[in-house]
Amino acid sequence: MRSKKAIFDLIPIGIYMMSDFTPLFDYVEKLSGKVLSADEKQIFMRHFKSKKLKKRQYFLQEGDVCKYTGFVVKGSARTFTVDEKGHEHILKLSVENWWLNDFESFYQLTPSRFNIQALEDMEILQITNALVDEFIKPIPAFAAMQNVISQNYTIAAQKRMQSAISQSGEQRFQELINEYPHFLQRFPQNMIASYLGLSPETLSRIRKNALK
Amino acid sequence: MRSKKAIFDLIPIGIYMMSDFTPLFDYVEKLSGKVLSADEKQIFMRHFKSKKLKKRQYFLQEGDVCKYTGFVVKGSARTFTVDEKGHEHILKLSVENWWLNDFESFYQLTPSRFNIQALEDMEILQITNALVDEFIKPIPAFAAMQNVISQNYTIAAQKRMQSAISQSGEQRFQELINEYPHFLQRFPQNMIASYLGLSPETLSRIRKNALK
DNA sequence: TGTATTTAATGACTAAAGTCAAGATCCAGC
DNA sequence: GCTGGATCTTGACTTTAGTCATTAAATACA
Fold it and tell me: Do the domain assignments include residue B162?
């Protein structure tokens, strides 16, 4: 049985940790539509580890297995590939309340084709695949959240695919402005260009035309 | 209590139906890694309805809600959009053992942005969202299958996005040949071109060059 | 089998986007 | 504030892919 002293000792840690985890708890509850119990929150806090990444630091490098999935508490990152000409192509821009990983590599434990790199100083909560399976997936709110995410992701991927196939660079740029207007403030233009599948020069010219 | 006669009456129907449903059962069992009980199979057979589509017939038209999800037993279809210039862009080619729907419209019951049209005479097994939720999702093998599908789909969408953003028309075509070699035999070249985001003329020229 | 329709190939031209190079501007860190 | 790297703009040119028009080939099907 726990003494009053022991409980007291835990409080400062608890308070400190809780504030870190609040965004994650809010996110899981919001997407799943379920409430997390105090016990369930403890499970999260025991198995997710806080990690800081400096700007330009890599979360994952091509060829490595994506051992962790991370929840972005603060900062941003890009997921990109490098083609045979040495050009980088950004597939995903991740900001607060997004997950950071390469699905394929993380679930199948195969070497990744992607690089994931911090664009700003970051704070993430990360966990391994094995620990997710053993401790986190059994939490109903988490499993429900996963289903919602994969549904949303599938829909978003389809939309993006549609614009990649059927729209001009300019149209894709306009769409990005509408969907993620803050991206323009937050990320350098060459990153936006790479995300749209355009050269930085082309995006610069598109913007110039759009303003006239 | 059921008489011997009544059971006997059911057998021919059962046998007839079973043969239709075999591909679906095999598919669910394979993807989920679980075995379906006789009772569970009966649930499938009670709620999925067989439907035939003639070549060129529409399964879904832009602006309509995608009321059904269909499992392709035989034939093929394309999912496409029409842009403001009247050009069609194929997002998905569906053949045997694939599902036929617009996720977004089907789950959210919103008007679809896509058309789905048979490219060959088709035979599908279809069901509404409400019936899936009530009768089919509770079957563990089906729920497990859904998770596997959404994982696979997410990975495939990411791969396709990567090639759309970072590869030339020719490279995308080569990749298609490697991944789905039978598509070239089965579908007209202009459909393949549309799927790759190319004009039919460009694909024709790419093929000519590749042969030299 | 013959004819209409669809699909594919090709040439000439146009449009969109990429490449390379140079200069301007912005900004982080000392 | 100064300085070096990063980012952005612009011009000249090249490459890639789209468009339009025409002809050829394949296919459907009556």
Answer: no
Pair B199, B150 in one domain: no
* A118: number of Cβ within 10 Å: 22
> Nearest residue to nucleotide C8 when comparing alpha carbons to its C1'?
B204
Q: Look up the CATH number of the domain holding residue B126.
A: 2.60.120.10
Please count the structural domains in chain A. 1
The reply to whether A105 falls in a domain is yes
Q: How many residue pairs from chains A and B have C-beta atoms closer than 8 A?
A: 74
Of A197, A158, A173, A150, the closest CA to residue B80 belongs to A158
Give the domain range for residue B32: 4-156
A126-to-A52, A101, A208, B5, B161 alpha-carbon distances in Å = 10, 10, 41, 62, 26
B102 and B172 in a single domain? The answer is: no
Interface of A with B in 148-167 (CB under 8 A): 150-151, 153-155, 157-158, 160-162, 164-167
CA distance A207 to A174: 10
**By the CB < 8 Å criterion, does A62 face chain B?**
no
Tens-level pLDDT at each residue, chain A (212 residues): 444 444 444 444 444 466 689 999 999 999 999 999 999 999 999 999 999 999 999 999 999 999 999 999 999 999 999 988 888 999 999 999 999 999 999 999 999 999 999 999 999 999 999 999 999 999 999 999 998 888 888 888 888 889 888 899 999 999 999 999 999 999 999 999 999 999 999 999 999 988 65
pTM greater than 0.70 (yes/no)? yes
Residues with CB under 7 A from strand C: A 85, 87, 168-170, 197-199, 201-202, 206; B 188-191, 200-201, 204-205, 207-208
**Among residues A7, A41, A5, which one has the least CA distance to residue A24?**
A41
B15 and B110 assigned to the same domain: yes
Give the bases of strand D that a protein CB approaches within 7 Å.
6-12, 16-21
* The nucleotide closest to B171 (CA, C1' atoms): D16
Q: Are B64 and B143 in contact (CB under 8 A)?
A: no
Nearest DNA or RNA nucleotide to B56 (CA to C1'): C6
Do both B102 and B202 map to the same domain? Answer: no
B161 in a domain, yes or no?
no
What gap in Å lies between CA A70 and CA A117, rounded to an integer? 13
